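Design a sequence for this backbone.
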């Protein structure tokens, strides 16, 4: 588990320094615009429900990114170890 915590530390550094691509920026703008349009159609209770769902979805996405990063790092390390061992 110690190694995994080191990998997660590296993940945090990557997250802090990542660049936002034009494609991501475009998708984000579209999402924000569509969300704002949709929220206007909802009553207060529905808005709160939507915000809860989006919060949970964001947490899931973040956890998924962490897990993929860790697994990718482990795979890359195995590949390098195997290549250097030959």
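Sequence:
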């Amino acid at each position: 588990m110690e190694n995994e915590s080191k990998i997660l530390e590296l993940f945090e550094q990557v997250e802090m320094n990542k660049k936002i691509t034009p494609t991501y920026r475009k998708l984000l703008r579209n999402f924000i615009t569509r969300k704002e349009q949709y929220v206007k159609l909802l009553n207060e209770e529905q808005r709160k429900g939507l915000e809860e769902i989006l919060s949970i979805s964001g947490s899931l996405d973040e956890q998924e990114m962490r897990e993929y990063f860790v697994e990718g790092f482990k795979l890359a390390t195995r590949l390098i170890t195997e290549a250097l061992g030959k």
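The helical segments are 2-17, 22-39, 44-85.
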